[in-house]
Amino acid sequence: MKLRIDTAGVSFICTRAPEARIAFDSGQQKLDRETGLPLWQVQVMALDASGGDVIAVTVAGDPNLTVGQPVQVDGLVALPWNQEGRSGIAFRADAIRASGAPLAGVIAPPRTVTPPNTPAGTGKPAA
C-alpha cells in the first residue's frame, strides 16, 4: 500500500550524495519497473516548524544533487514493508530536484531577549 505524504510546509535538504540502488543478487543497479530508468537513493532532511528527520528516498533517474542543497521532493509516498520478521517504511518519490526555495519559512526567527530589569519594549533599565 502506498501512503501519499503531504509535503506542504516541509523543506528538504540533501544530506548525502545520491547513491545507486544495487540489486543484491546481480550486483547491477536496479531499474524502475515502469520507466526503465536507474534507481537512486537520496538521503534528505525533512524540516518543518516542529523539527526535522533524515529519510532515505528512492527516485528513478539520476537526481544530480549535492550535499547541503535545498531540494524539492515531488510525489512522496511511504511504503510500509514486512519481510522475514523485519519491518520498516521505505520512501519513494516521483522526482527530487534542486530547489531555489529558501528555508526561512520553516526556521523560526531568533527571539529578542529583554535584559533583566528592563521594561519590555523600552530598552532602558527600570527606575
Automatic annotation (TrEMBL):
Superkingdom: Bacteria
Chain residue ranges for the region called Disordered: 107-127
Protein's recorded name: Regulatory protein
Provenance organism: Mycolicibacterium moriokaense
